[in-house]
Every structure is written in C-alpha cells, then in structure tokens.
C-alpha cells in the first residue's frame, strides 16, 4: 500500500516519488513517524463516556502539497492544529470525514467493522468535493496503527468502543495562484485521524418529527456522500423538533413526502406481510440522496441471508423502495407497522417509538426495541466485538 519509493524534502518534510521524480508522493503508511505524548491522560469510567466528548492521547496528521505530494504521516499528541483563516475548509466547507469504531474481542484483539466500505466511501466523498485523491487502503493502514497505539482506550464492556474519525479537508491554495478567497477547489489538503472512547448513543427509544419544509438532501447534491456540509443545515430543524418534544428529525422529500433518513442516520421499518411469510424490512433506496451507510448495508445483507433467518427463526424480506408518510400511516392504522429503527455507526440499531406528523403521532408498538431490531443489533455487535466470525466483516488491527 502507498508509495514506498519516496524521498523526503529536508526543508518541507514532504516526500517525492523517487521512482518517478516528477510525480507527487503518494500517502505512504510505511513512512509513519511517532511522537508520543510524555504524559498519558487518565481513562474515564464508562459511566461518564458521551459520544465525541473525550479523545485519546494521540492523533495522526498528514498534509498534501500539489508539487511534493503527501507528507510523511505522523502520530503526535492530540491537540490544536494551526490553519490560515482563509483556508477553504472554513470558507466553503471543503471537508469530508468517516465514522467507524474499534472494538475489543474476547481474544483481546482490536477489530474494525467492515472498514473497507468506509474507505471506499471516503474516496468517493473526496472526489465529489474535488479534494486531492486519497488511497483509502493507506488511510486504513494508518487507522490500524492509531488503534494499536491507543488500544488502552478501547472499553472492554459490550456496547462500548473507540470511535475513529478520519477527516480530509481543503487546506489552502498554492501561493502563486493569488486567489485568496476565490471560490475554487483547494490544491492543498490535510488528513487527520482522531480517536474517541464512546458508549451507547441512545439510552432510550427515540421520537421523530417528520418534516418536509426542510430537506436533508436533494437529487444531484451531496446526500449520498459523507461531507461536512450535509450536517449543519439540519441543526435548526433539529432544535425546532426538540422544542416540540421530539428527539430527532425524520426527513421527508418531495410532494409525496417520501421517507428518507432519521437525523443523521438511515431509517428502517419492519412491516407485517399480508401472506404471513415473515416480515418486510424496508428502507429508502440509494438514489443519490441517501447515505450508503455501512450498518445499513450490513442490516440488508443479514436480512437477505437464509443462515441468519434460521438463527432468529424469522424470514426477513429486505426491501429498498420508495415509501411515503401516507404508507407509514396506513401500515400503522392496519396494525402492520411493527418496528421503526434508526441505523448508523454511532447508534448501530436503535428503536424509534413515535413519529410526529401534522400534529398527530404514529405510535410504534412496545416500549423497547422489537424482536427484529434486537436480533439484528445483537448479531452486528457479536461480529463487531469478535464473538462471531461472519463473512470477514470483523477486521483485526494487526
């Protein structure tokens, strides 16, 4: 992985490709250097862990220059980074990121869950924002190295993990461009990777407020990529939902009020079939407006696997289809809407107990997660935490 035939520039710390002297250097995990913290932070008790609130001792940083290419990546103590105020990441939101987790298995080994999917998505997100291209396989190797350095931060308890946030952002323009705040893609980039110990994302079932006056994504936009600009426009609708007593937004789209996502998560419903042959597991299709979530893909794969059906003694029929608020209301009135699930890296699988729409609530049966959501969550956690081997989804950090 990466380009192992590179030479350093003494003045800049950048590297050139020694085999092709005129080519910018590729990101190279073999060039990783380590500057370890002199004093390590005390570990928090798991009861105090909140998502994204505390960070481990170290991070990884590398920068891209269009002439020299990628600098040698460095493990360094977690701390502030220095950026010019004119950087494109501030002015135009030229940032992409990924979210993934490392878990400790019963064998004491740290594992990532289907990280290749995160890396392919990160590559596509970079291309969508005209960021310098990045080799996701090399980023994954750097992530594994960071996880091994920070292994003591991975909680041993089930449901807890070390959240990993690799970020690539537009940095600045070449000095000779003289564009300043010009609305153009940056030719410099910075990669950094953070690690944060975390516990369960939700402590109880969540309520959703369905909204159509604001949209999370639109055809031809960036909804199918994990870019920073997708998230901040949802903050105001989220605040309005909270003021009305709801935990998250259920995003609708179009005049027919198609159901898309829940907050920053994929959304599934479990619906009873007329033929009594198991149940349908329904989610919106990947039409460019839906984030292709790793957990989403995993839920669909399990729901389509006869071996998993035997494990849970239920036949699941996964459906990627357009459906609307009218469909949800109809299924609910007919007693067919059995479960509603928020799906994502942070939450894994979480239950939704009611959906507010036009002044009324669609109430989901039960006070806790239903049997389908429970079975899928348990299976995914067993794979993530190394209790079950399943199709190579758990990747050991070696």
TrEMBL record:
N6-(pyridoxal phosphate)lysine, modified sites: 226
Entry keywords, A to Z: Amino-acid biosynthesis, Aminotransferase, Branched-chain amino acid biosynthesis, Pyridoxal phosphate, Transferase
Enzyme category, top tier: transferase
Ranges of compositional bias, category Polar residues: 1-21
BP-aspect Gene Ontology terms: L-leucine biosynthetic process; L-valine biosynthetic process
Pfam families (UniProt xref): Aminotran_4
Swiss-Prot/TrEMBL catalytic activity: L-isoleucine + 2-oxoglutarate = (S)-3-methyl-2-oxopentanoate + L-glutamate; L-leucine + 2-oxoglutarate = 4-methyl-2-oxopentanoate + L-glutamate; L-valine + 2-oxoglutarate = 3-methyl-2-oxobutanoate + L-glutamate
CDD domains in the cross-refs: BCAT_beta_family
EC numbers: 2.6.1.42
GO molecular function: branched-chain-amino-acid transaminase activity
Location of the region described as Disordered in the Swiss-Prot/TrEMBL record: 1-26
Cofactors demanded by this protein: pyridoxal 5'-phosphate
Top-level taxonomic group: Eukaryota
Protein's UniProt keywords contain Transferase: yes
One Gene Ontology term, aspect cellular component: mitochondrion
Regions annotated as coiled coil: none
PANTHER family xrefs: BRANCHED-CHAIN-AMINO-ACID AMINOTRANSFERASE (PTHR11825:SF44), SUBGROUP IIII AMINOTRANSFERASE (PTHR11825)
Family the UniProt entry places it in: Belongs to the class-IV pyridoxal-phosphate-dependent aminotransferase family.
Protein name: Branched-chain-amino-acid aminotransferase
